[in-house]
Amino acid sequence: MSATLTGKNLIAGRWQSSNGERFESRSPARESEVLGVFPSSSVEEARQAVAAAREAYPAWRRTSRIYRAELFDNLAQIVKREADNLARLMARECGKVVSECRAEVIEGLHMIQYVFGTGRMPIGEVLASEIAEKDAFMRRKPWGVVAVITPWNFPFAVPLWMLGPSLLEGNTVVFKPSEDTPAIGQRLAELFVEAGFPAGVLNLVHGAAETGEALVRDPGVNIVLFTGSYEVGHRIQQLSAEHYDRIVACEMGSKSAVIVCADARLDLAVNCALISAFKTSGQRCVSAGRILVAESLFDKFADKLISAARRLRIGDPLNSGNFTGPVIHRAAVEKIERYNALARAEGGQVLLDGGRMTDGEHAAGCYLSPFIYRMEHRPEVRVLREEVFGPHLALVPFKTNEDAVRIYNDTPYGLSMAVVTEDYRAMRMFREECEYGMGYVNLPCIGAEVHLPFGGVKKSGNGHPSAAGLIETVTHKTAWTVNHSTEVKMAQGLTTDIEGGPA
Ligand code: UN1
User: Fold this and answer.
1) Which CATH number fits domain 9-252+461-480: 3.40.1400.10, 3.40.190.10, 1.20.1250.20, 3.40.605.10?
2) 138 and 477 Cβ atoms separated by less than 8 Å
3) How far is the CA of 461 from the centre of ligand 1 (A)?
4) Is the CB of 447 under 6 A from ligand 1?
5) Residue 130 C-alpha to ligand 1 middle, in angstroms?
6) Residue 503: is its pLDDT beyond 70?
7) How confident is the model at residue 462 (pLDDT cuts 50, 70, 90)?
8) 179 near 207, Cβ under 8 Å?
9) What number does CATH give the domain 256-450?
10) Is 305's pLDDT higher than 70?
11) Could you say which of 94, 101, 272, 285 is catalytic?
């Protein structure tokens, strides 16, 4: 096993260990395995990191956008070189199966490549003017300092979605990785340093809620980019309301769903459901907690799904033959088990009685097998409305496609949905009537590509997308108007006569 890492903050280009409190990162697959010990950064350390980012900002924004893009090309080469090591570290630290971690490294690489390519794309528009001699432009400018606060479940790709556009556009950043995945966060910061990003442009502070809150409260932060739970995102929004120039882009919880219509291809539907619900042990923000199934297909679908779910291989995340590894930590196990019990209490008919796994290698880690139940839709049922974030799945029967839309929309969230159908009219109806940020047809409701918009509506987010769409969020549009005449000419017929006409 590799040596225990010493966690450090990166502030103004210097790696700093902290004298204050520390926390451990442990593997959810073997809870006795400590990956590293990291600083619980204080309010003062967060303040220093923001100050370092502010100081680096003017020089960074004055560099050429293409120079900044080329640093991302350096980073792409390094990530390619490091892909296997990164995937293994990630698998150990967050428990996702190594093949999935590799796909995540590739997703992060795609974002870097996207950002590199974008460096040579337009930064504005040429607009028309009412006055023939005037040239008018829209030009994008950076906002300043961005706080990037990211989750453990995509500890490499999601930070890159945010860091990439922010830095490309000339902002500087303070990055706080999840306290559950500090090692991979620190490794990512090291790669930025190796790629040649100057001191202070990317700062890293480790820590949990207190550190995050210190960043959000700091008036030196112009933008907060956040992916995580609704509770934390909402707190960030509330604290940010105090700051007159604060932009907040939040991607929060979900209760995503796959809708299996009566005409669905059965095998395709089962595959979509399994991947949506159980890939990453149901711990993607876009994971499906609900499969809505046409009543006429319900029994056939449920039988196939249950027998496939029984066969899923759950075990060591370093073994790529496994379908999933453990969930993130003991508190997650307990929360998911509480929801399994709640599903029974609320009248769910259990079809596959999953839960904690304690046999063999599973005893050492936070392993759960899939829990699947049939639940009739009623508006007050909590397990159909609340996010569980684990291998916990409701199968909900529906009669008509219109019912399916109503059931789908009956949660406070709106992140991701998929519909399985051969009927193009039905497909269009779901596209228009469901509330979501990412919609899929004959696919799982997970697996977005970085150049597509990503983000949700309702409690899932405030509409500012992550990934490629962030370029809009991390820049502000300026109007720039130039007169080529030797005299002043105004729009709207506004007179330029300053002497005044005859009385
Ligand atoms: C997340 O779960 O927080 O769409 C991000 C997907 C991935 C990203 C998920 N590309 O499943």
Assistant:
1) 3.40.605.10
2) yes
3) 14
4) yes
5) 46
6) no
7) confident
8) yes
9) 3.40.309.10
10) yes
11) 285
Largest Cα span, the chain: 99
Instruction: Find out whether the beta carbon of 218 lies less than 6 Å from any atom of ligand 1.
Output: no
Is a pLDDT exceeding 70 seen at residue 168? yes
Q: At residue 339, does pLDDT exceed 60?
A: yes
- Residue range 5-34, pLDDT digits in tens: 999 999 999 999 987 899 999 999 999 999
Strands 256-260 and 22-26, bridge-based pairing: unpaired
Q: Which atom of ligand 1 is nearest to the CA of 286?
A: 2
For the segment 397-446, what is each residue's pLDDT rounded down to a tens digit?
999 999 999 999 999 999 999 999 999 999 999 999 999 999 999 999 99
| pLDDT tens profile 249-274 | 999 999 999 999 999 999 999 999 99
Give the pLDDT band (50/70/90) at residue 391: very high
Question: Each residue of 315-324: pLDDT tens digit?
Answer: 999 999 999 9
Residue 463 confidence class, pLDDT cut points 50, 70, 90? low
Interatomic CA distance for residues 363 and 47, integer angstroms = 42
Report the C-alpha gap between 191 and 184 in whole angstroms.
11
User: For position 18, what pLDDT does the model report?
Assistant: 82
Query: Would you say the CB of residue 111 lies under 6 angstroms from ligand 1?
Result: no
Give the Cα separation of 201 and 260 in Å (integer): 47
Query: Quick one: which atom of ligand 1 is closest to the CA of 450?
Result: 10
Residue by residue, what is the 3-state secondary structure of 53-96? Answer: HHHHHHHHHHCCHHHHHHHHHHHHHHHHHHHHHHHHHHHHHHCC
Domains of the chain, by residue range, sit at 9-252+461-480, 256-450
What's the pLDDT tens digit per position in 210-219? 999 999 999 9
Q: Which ligand 1 atom is the nearest neighbour of the CA of 449?
A: 10
Task: Return the best residue to mutate from 250, 254, 454 for the ligand 1 pocket (most ligand atoms within 8 A of CB).
Answer: 454
Pocket probe for ligand 1: among 286, 416, 417, 466, the residue whose CB has the most ligand atoms within 8 Å is 286
Contact indicator for 104, 156 with CB cutoff of 8 Å: yes
Q: Which tokens go with 198? A: 């100057």
What is the rounded distance in angstroms from the CA atom of residue 342 to the CA atom of residue 255? Answer: 16
Q: Look up residue 412 and give its amino acid.
A: P
For 190, phi and psi rounded to 5 degrees?
A: -60, -40
286 lines ligand 1 (CB under 6 A): yes
Please work out, in degrees rounded to the nearest 5, the angle formed at the alpha carbon of residue 362 by the alpha carbons of 277 and 323: 35
